Amino acid sequence: MVADGDRIGIRVERPWGAWTLLESGPGYKVKRIEVLPGGRLSLQKHRSRSEHWVVVQGTARVTTDEKVFALAANQWTFIPLGAVHRLENPDAGLLVLIEVQTGIHLCETDIVRLEDDYGRPVGDQPEENRVLSAAELVET
């Protein structure tokens, strides 16, 4: 069974907005992300992927480790593997960006939430949903 988040063209609603998977292949995924006015994603990090964000509409407030900065349309940033990051929409209009994920294991369970405005679980994932590191994959 394929989860909705792994099906191209399916819109996945979140409390902060929505995302749609546009393309997927070995080692990469491309998503369209929409963030509602005033919305923000969890402060989070990933074990198995890095991300490239390109703003196509609106203005983003981006947190990457200790840096906080704005991105306007046609600007981009790179979120390295393991970096603590957050995406926010500080404006009154919709924020739209294209996200390109790259890595060895790309799944929605590869999120370690450090803070969340919407009451979702914070911290590491349950063991049964945990994404294995490259070293752990070799051991199994």
Helix/strand class? mainly beta
- Biggest β-sheet: strands ordered side by side in the sheet: 1-2-3-10-5-8
**Number of helical runs?**
1
Q: Give the distance, in angstroms, between the N- and C-terminal Cα atoms.
A: 23 Å
Q: Work out the number of β strands.
A: 11
Radius of gyration: 15 Å
Percentage of β-strand residues: over 45%
| Arithmetic mean pLDDT | 88
What's this, in brief?
This protein is mostly beta strands and 140 residues long. The chain contains one helix and eleven strands, in the order E-E-E-E-E-E-E-E-E-E-E-H.
Please describe the structure with a list of short key phrases separated by commas or semicolons.
mainly beta, 11 strands, 1 helix, 140 residues, 6-stranded antiparallel sheet, single chain, Jelly Rolls
Topology:
Elements (H helix, E strand, L loop, with lengths): L10 E4 L2 E9 L2 E8 L7 E3 L3 E9 L2 E5 L2 E5 L4 E4 L5 E4 L6 E9 L8 E4 L18 H6 L1
Antiparallel strand pairs: 1-2, 2-3, 3-10, 4-11, 5-8, 5-10, 6-7, 6-9
